[in-house]
Amino acid sequence: MLVSFQPFIFVAMSNELYIYNSLTREKQLFNPLNPPFVGMYVCGPTVYNEVHLGNLRTFISFDLIYRWLTVLGYKVRYVRNITDVGHLENDADEGEDKISQRARLEQLEPMEIVQKYTNRFHEVLNVFRCIPPSIEPTATGHLIEQIDLIRIILSKGFAYEVNGSVYFDVKKYAEYYNYGVLSGRNIEELLSGTRDLDGQEEKRNPLDFALWKKAGATHIMRWPSPWGEGFPGWHLECSAMSTKYLGTTFDIHGGGMDLKFPHHECEIAQHCAAHENAPVNYWIHGNMLTLNGKKMSKSDGNFVLPFDLTNGTPPLVDKPYSPLSVRFFMLQAHYGSTLDLSMEALSASDKAFRRLQQAIKDVATISPGATASDFDAQEWANNCKSAMNDDFNSPILIAHLFDAVKIVNACKDKKRSLDALQLTILKDNLNLYFYQVLGLDNPESASSQTELLDGVMNLILDLRKAAREQKDWNTSDKIRNTLQSLDIVIKDGKDGSTWQINN
Ligand code: AMP
Ligand code: ZN
Questions:
Q1: pLDDT tens, residue by residue, 410-422
Q2: Has domain 18-286 been given CATH number 3.40.50.620?
Q3: CA end-to-end distance (rounded Å), the chain
């Protein structure tokens, strides 16, 4: 009796998802507030220029998380904002905001810049197979909510108005709440590190941050408010929009590691000040993509654009890489680890991806044998699931998929056989993880492309066979050599010729 119950116990355990929570700094069992519903908010881009590959990594990481939650059966409301208000580099900066700056450079209206780069952002995410969020709210579309939030914070005494601007009073807040709860920063140390107001004399304290900033005479992006014409502070929109769409407490908030402080710390402060409760149960932070060991960043000029990789733009990129192969490269690292981009690493990952892709194609052609081999398909499938349930561990999952690739290849070479049940489990799970979880293609386009390639290759092999029958070795060799240069290898056997994409 006990033995027969064991699989159920195991399945129940492997169904439990553990998430590394940046707030508690430990892996925790995921318990959504209101299952099967899950609320997830991810900070989106500021749309004043092209997203770089580092930005893309973070969006791919949260795409993986979204996909896995969905596969587990959760109904996820995924909110990712578009920051279309041009924020200043910091509160001291009285100059132009980033969007207006770009508008002047490109001789366009600020809202044209916003639209142009929002479109580009969508294009990139679509090419790299990120599923669009359920709601994509814009900051400019939520000025009323942001102004309301400032009103509440003011009414609770955690903000003050000076000369048409409103600042959050960090010192006052710290008397009641833990400023630094997320980032682990200590307010005393922060204060001693930034004694100087450095041109920000309106503030009572250098740690205070703007909730509303008065617009200077030349500032283009401006809105009326109870405090005069101005624009919202850069932490405000995420607090206002996450509350509006997910409630005053929700399950998951994500973004890149660089947003932990001050952005997310300030979001928590604004929210606690206004609503007297913590906004988020699980904070997830994706780690940075680096280039030459340094954080990829536009402002340092240390960046690669996603389409540079797919176009093979020299001098940094050696050849064109498919978007799926770039996505695979990213998913080969855990979202919480840094990942360094190099052509060597990308090239190795590209080869591995093609091996996996070939196995996905091959598994469809394998027929079940009469006898089962020693491969425990169910245990393998459980291992895949456990990897993803262990804080979305895609590199471990991919290692398990490569165990399956060995089995597929052995079956193909007739060195191993699987019975019908083993084969079904293997096929179903390979397809589930490759297509749905890792998002390495969509099955329809893949199968139609595969069918197309199969059709074309069969035609070519027929033509070559006819040439060989007529002893036209020139044509036959030309076909073989040209295909070889495309990494397609022909194998001549006694049952005819077969082809394979070279690994
Ligand atoms: P931004 O438009 O700068 O707010 O960035 C959009 C998202 O990309 C944020 O979640 C950032 O944390 C993230 N991000 C920025 N640079 C990198 C990087 N080098 N690697 C990974 N994520 C990044
Ligand atoms: Zn945000």
A1: 999 999 999 999 9
A2: yes
A3: 48
